[in-house]
Amino acid sequence: MLVHRDEQLAHLHWAFRACEKHGHGQVALVTGAVGSGKTQVLETFGEWAATAGGQVLSAAGARAEQGLRFGVLGQLLHSARLKPEGLRQVEGLIREVALSVPKTETGSDAGAEVLTEALTADGLWAPLLRTAFDTFLTLAGRGPLVLAVDDLQHTDAASLHCLLYVTRRLRNARIMVLLSEATTLRPAHPLFHAELRSLPRFTRVTLPLLTTDSVSRLIGEEAEAREAGNSAARAQNLREEARRILRVTGGNPLLTQALVDERANRETDSAPATGTRADDAFDRAVRDCLYRHEPGVRRVAQALAVLNRPASQELLGQLLDVLPDSTVPAVRVLQSAGLLHAGQLRHPRILHAVRCDMPAEERRRLHQRAAEVLHDNGAEASVVAEHLVASAWTDSAWVVPVLRDAAAHALSSGRPDYAAACLRLGGRAETDKGRRNSLMAMLITARWQVNPLAVTGQVSQLVEAARSDESSHSTALSAVPYLLWQGRAEEAAEAISGQGADRHGPASSELRLTRLLIALSHPDCLETVREDPSSWARAVTAPHTASPQLQAVSVLGNALMPTGDLDIVAAAEQLLERHHLNSGSLGLLTAPLLALLCAGRSDRVADWGEQLLARPGVRHTPAWRGIVRAIHAEATLRLGDLDAAERGARLALEDLPAPAWGVAVGGPLGTLITCTTESGRRFEAEHWLSQPVPAGVFRTPVGAHYLIARGRHHLAMGQHQAAAADLHRCGELVRSWGIDVAGLVPWRLELARVQLSLGNRTNAAQLLQDQLQVSRGLDDRTRGRALRLLASTAAPDHRRKLLSKAVSVLQSCSDQQELARALSDTVQTLPPAGDPTQARLFVHRANRLTQRPGRTPALPQRAERRPAPDDTTTTATTPADSPPDDDFETRDQDSLLSEAERRVAILAARGRTNRQISNELYITVSTVEQHLTRVYRKLDVKSRTDLPDRLMALTGPMA
Fold this sequence. Notes:
Blueprint: H1 6-22, E1 26-32, H2 38-51, E2 55-60, H3 71-79, H4 84-100, H5 109-122, H6 125-140, E3 145-150, H7 157-167, E4 175-182, H8 190-197, E5 202-206, H9 212-226, H10 235-249, H11 253-267, H12 278-291, H13 295-307, H14 313-320, H15 328-336, E6 340-341, E7 344-345, H16 348-357, H17 360-376, H18 381-391, H19 399-412, H20 416-429, H21 433-450, H22 456-467, H23 473-478, H24 480-485, H25 489-496, H26 506-521, H27 527-531, H28 548-560, H29 568-579, H30 586-598, H31 602-613, H32 622-638, H33 642-655, H34 666-678, H35 682-689, H36 701-716, H37 720-737, H38 747-757, H39 761-773, H40 780-791, H41 796-810, H42 816-829, H43 836-849, H44 873-877, H45 899-909, H46 914-921, H47 925-939, H48 947-955
Parallel strand pairs: 1-4, 1-5, 2-3, 3-4
Antiparallel strand pairs: 6-7
């Protein structure tokens, strides 16, 4: 569609009217970039001129017909539909002249001069020029005549000479000569243009690139073609869409129309008429735009597509093996067409279209040449390596060091996929065995972050290399983390056996890090490392001398094996704060996240996990992303959000399939088993339990986490012996490893639940008291659960105090289900003949907390149905966390306090007078009295002194 061309068409209309009214001929030249709509302007104007009483003769130049003498003139005369005898006369003259002049260089000004001299010397021009002009004059006698010539830059020299002859004689002729010309590398036909500009009635009309308003109009017109109208409410959306299109096309009408058509096809959910993808239409538009330029323009565009960054004219010249100045016109042409911005191709889609049009061998050759030129010009290793990888070229001594440096930078930037590509190429080119092993170690690090299953064979090769005398110290250590991930702890220990290093320096830090990693991930190995923390514990507080990796793992070591008075939470937070913005630090930060989890700060783990997962770079590292998601899921589970925890654990297993997790698979599986069990979907939990786990899982702390989850599921299914076996085994493992931390696995609490379900209240009480004494890592949720369960083993007079404390603790975390259970248990402690209103309020609050899809109320709504407080039979024979019956009655909502009533009641309970409440809430004293009357009735109280207890039962602590 023709938009943003009203001003240009108005100029042409004025020229036509001047020609018609005053009888003075006009000459207009329409210029613009390729694809700017010149042809459409000529056609639109021609249609208008024909309806305005004019006659239009049309012709178009073509690159392939520049050597055809009088080709454009012939087109004009044929479009005039002359009488046969007149047409034969003109054609005869054209043929005679064409055969009588020497051959000249197509399209050159020198050739045009030679042609003119030959024709003038022989006197051949005169009859033809007079006959052509007389023919045009005769046609103009019927009405204004328009001679429209498109693509002037491709017009043959002979026709140009005839056109000049006509333009010189337009003073008293009603003839308008309308020409169009595209931007070219060099000015086309400068002599012709010089004479055109000297004419008294010459007009130049330039077609600019489209603007936001014009594209908005274009989109709106497309929408109106599909809809009944275009509402004003969509105006802003149209402008935003127009800006997006302009960012891609630069305002080039040809490319813009392709994107608009693509948008229309997408909105109408229909494929293009050709049956191809809509994306192909845009690619074709880009290619059409380039092929309509000279070959030199296309070559510069291809060079810029290969470089994919701003380039100076010197760099472009070296890349294309041409003089730097010769690239300037091509860059100017590309900018005028909207394809170029800030020295590079405007958008990735344009770059993609240009690259796809290049033959593979040509693209490879340009990448190779780009690598050489960029290296010679001192470009960064990562920039040079991009072209080395694309060309697969290694025939130079500097290639491998550049690839190594680029890979190291990519790893530190969170791009393991790109690092792996560099290292694969470097490994093929490296001839030194030691350096090749080092490259292999880096390659394993990169590929593992993308897919741990892909490095199994390479890890074994690296282990074999580490056993040889030619292997370096760092090569042996680099294999350890991946051996541990695969559960090959003995091989990991063997890899570092005999490794000696000074107690200072990078080698010492690397060895200490590796030994600590083995001791923490497989606690049955290297017990002496845990027994002698002096070799690593101080690393946490030595930020300038220890490596960040050693610091991170040392923080986790201190969380699992407390040493001294180190503030684990503060140390972990400092590491996260220092490194969380580094793109390649996701793996480094998993250790402090785990440390916070073990320290009982699930809330901080949830906050940090969300920040890390929101970073754009995590999409390149599926392994670390999955690990962070698994840790975050466990943290949200401990905060009581079962839905978020299950969703996170599922995503973690989507990032990495279960076999790729190695011995760490127990982490996300354990969280999923617990979530589905707690949600009452126990058969779904059995599905996750059926997933195979390596035997080595149970040699790791993750195995203890998995045993806890499996034990809880066994208990929920009534399999008490299996539950007790799993939980006893879990306790034995963590105690034998010396990492019996409540934040890791609260196994005593879960075992106490089993004992309660079996009626062993004494054993359960002892386990719960022991759990409460394990202070390290005891979070509020675990403490609140322990207090609630301990209350079920206490005497009636002590039970309510424990439950009150449990409710207070659980209110500080967000586990609404556990809080509801504690409130429900509180109802059981109220005397049978006690206050029924207070009991009903406790029941209402408990059920309100659990009003979510798939959950049942914590208690039946009728307070009369609660058992007597000294009835211990039910407590002893019913699993402590078993879901209550869902047989309940819904109380009338009118008995609940409105928000306004609740505000008044809270202030009254705090001792405010009616006048003070009135001033504080900006309501009248009468309104306060009315609210209080309804509050007293609903809560069944007689005075202000009874309000605090009632409100506590209904809403919890008053803010």
